Known about the structure:
Structural class: alpha/beta
Amino acid sequence: xxxxxxxxxxxxxxxxxxxxxxxxxxxxxxxxxxxxxxxxxxxxxxxxxxxxxxxxxxxxxxxxxxxxxxxxxxxxxxxxxxxxxxxxxxxxxxxxxxxxxxxxxxxxxxxxxxxxxxxxxxxxxxxxxxxxxxxxxxxxxxxxxxxxxxxxxxxxxxxxxxxxxxxxxxxxxxxxxxxxxxxxxxxxxxxxxxxxxxxxxxxxxxxxxxxxxxxxxxxxxxxxxxxxxxxxxxxxxxxxxxxxxxxxxxxxxxxxxxxxxxxxxxxxxxxxxxxxxxxxxxxxxxxxxxxxxxxxxxxxxxxxxxxxxxxxxxxxxxxxx
Length: 321
């Protein structure tokens, strides 16, 4: 049983022959101790993806202890070591990593931090491919894109970030495109609207299923996350051949060596000069080629095999309640 039940990453790593249980529309019921106790015989292994964009159990320590009482092995993949609610996320990780049979994560840097903070050894598995380039779409040299709105992460000053991105794009001889999720339909800050009305930047609203295509059209994609550890957008950009400018916090550069970092973390916040300089530097580099599809398929197969071996191992060791 996966928590969440599905999603781009969860679907990509699922081994052949593994059957998921639960409601595809949400995994919340499985985060309740009463539900676990009532339906324990329906699951062999619980795999929690911590920090993958979904809430964890309300009482993580009690939930983890209930799994132990029922004899259900817990596997945890740590996607984020920092999250929007740092205190709650720390409590979740402390509880589930204390009882997990196996811990997985996506980069060596994250594994080192897990060992230092929680005393657990994590198996490092590569983040698999999430997108395939659209042969009908071309990329524009010099085009910089930054997403604003609910999907853009914890950005306390979107206007400041957009202004810094605009400065970097112009200094590098490019132009800026602000990307907005049409489904979320956020009201853009008046400062961003004023810049668009003055012709200094372009605003594009994209629909469902169009995000990878929007990234593919860029020379440089700016990730606006203020905190976090890994990003699926880094992998999409690697797949479609777009250079990434990402925050200095987390392990984005560990995911892909072509990432250009800028200073933006929980303590110091955004350094706009650093962001503008990173964009300018990224624009001087050629656009990367899309990832080799054969290599990406081999990588995904290997990641699924690792997950299959982990499930088999913990299931063989399961102590039946």
